[in-house]
Amino acid sequence: NAGVTQTPKFQVLKTGQSMTLQCAQDMNHNSMYWYRQDPGMGLRLIYYSASEGTTDKGEVPNGYNVSRLNKREFSLRLESAAPSQTSVYFCASSATPGYNQPQHFGDGTRLSIL
Amino acid sequence: RKEVEQDPGPFNVPEGATVAFNCTYSNSASQSFFWYRQDCRKEPKLLMSVYSSGNEDGRFTAQLNRASQYISLLIRDSKLSDSATYLCVVSLSGGYNKLIFGAGTRLAVHP
Fold first, then answer.
1. Subunit contact B44:A100, Cβ cutoff 8 A
2. How do beta strands B105-110 and B11-14 pair?
3. pLDDT higher than threshold 80 for residue B1
């Protein structure tokens, strides 16, 4: 039961470097999300994709870009990493964009920017 | 003011105890409500949805008070395995599945 799979699990970058976080789900879900989680704060939405072919900004999109490659995959790109982007990143999916749908999470990517 | 507020804890309780967590939300347009559980350095996992009439799942009982805009979670007969952070989550209607997460309440159950 893979569910939502994220790669890599850990990454250390230098300021200014770029990288892409990968996310794939095998539950045939339509909607996918990227969050970041920082100490003492709730998860905050970076970007979401309500359905294949669409992406929209969430609460904290600055410094990030996303690609919904197909129904299964949703990637998050940091073009020029900054120390403020040190965080734990979670990808999630839900069957539909509906407000009563729980979201299923991957096990996270721990990213440190030096 | 945070949109979803929780007491951060930690709540330290012995095995077998009953413990209750409360959560308040600020947006009266909130439509759906959930409790998620997050173990240390792991992903959040859905514990239960919260319905207007209240609902129970084994040792866990969730209540919703729309008038006062708060949600509660009651855990009876606490187990060591219940030690985790409990996240209160509300969902807003309109456009997409916008979940607003509280920062979580940490529970530590000791022998």
1. no
2. parallel
3. no
